[in-house]
Amino acid sequence: MSEGYKPYTPGWNDPPSYSFEDTVSAQHENRPKIFDRIPARVLSNAPSEQFNLENKQIPLNNEIVSNEICNDTTTIPAVSSSICDIPVEDRLSYVMSSLSDSIQKSTLPDSKKVDISKRLSRLEISWKDIQFTDVVQQKTIALVKAIKINDYAEANRLQMALMVDHTRQCNTWIPAIRQLINHHI
Fold it and tell me: Which candidate, 50, 52, 78, 80, places its Cα nearest to that of 64?
């Protein structure tokens, strides 16, 4: 029973028959100038605006801003202090106790508080399993400090930065902090 030659009929999910190289070269030849990169304009007042933004952010490294550079005395002392002033072995307990206090003080419904606490237990497990880099730990501490002093705009910025930059490490617990921040914004 030889079946012989059967004609090939492509299926619905077979890849197209043209090659990728041909389409890439065709795209570059007919590419309009609108997609070329335009350099940003340098404005004379741009450095001062950038400097003002830097004063309002929580420092994420061990650098201490001197008074010669920063004349802004309206910064909050808890935010402007160094993030790594907490010993490595006490960081987790500081983060968990601060977040637990914030959850208990919030006016969220009890069901939301339970859900947030469950997600934060994942934070604790990941931290104990040494799944976080030092940068993630420092940003998390900065986020907790911002929540603790009720600076929810800065906490929102730090939460988004963690969520975008360190998704794999934070995706299980960062939505809980998002709920806590959104409740206060």
Answer: 80
Tokens coding 45: 């007042």
User: Measured between alpha carbons, how far is 100 from 114 in angstroms, rounded to an integer?
Assistant: 11
Tell me how many helices (H) and strands (E) the chain has.
Answer: 9, 0
Structure tokens at 119: 């997600």
| pLDDT tens, position by position, 10-45 | 778 776 665 555 555 555 566 666 656 666 666 555
Task: Kindly state the DSSP code that residue 72 receives in the 8-state scheme.
Answer: -
- 3-class secondary structure, 81: coil
163/170 Cα distance (integer angstroms): 6
What distance in Å separates the CA atoms of residue 131 and residue 172, rounded to the nearest whole number? 12
Interval 128-148 mean pLDDT: 91
The whole-angstrom separation of Cα 139 and Cα 59 is 9
Q: Which pLDDT does position 74 carry in this prediction?
A: 41
CA dihedral 106, 110, 115, 118 (to 10 degrees): 80
DSSP state of 30: T
pLDDT recorded at residue 178: 92
Are residues 158 and 146 in contact, defined by beta-carbon separation less than 8 angstroms? yes
Domain boundaries, the chain: 83-184
Superfamily of domain 83-184: Functional domain of the splicing factor Prp18 (1.20.940.10)
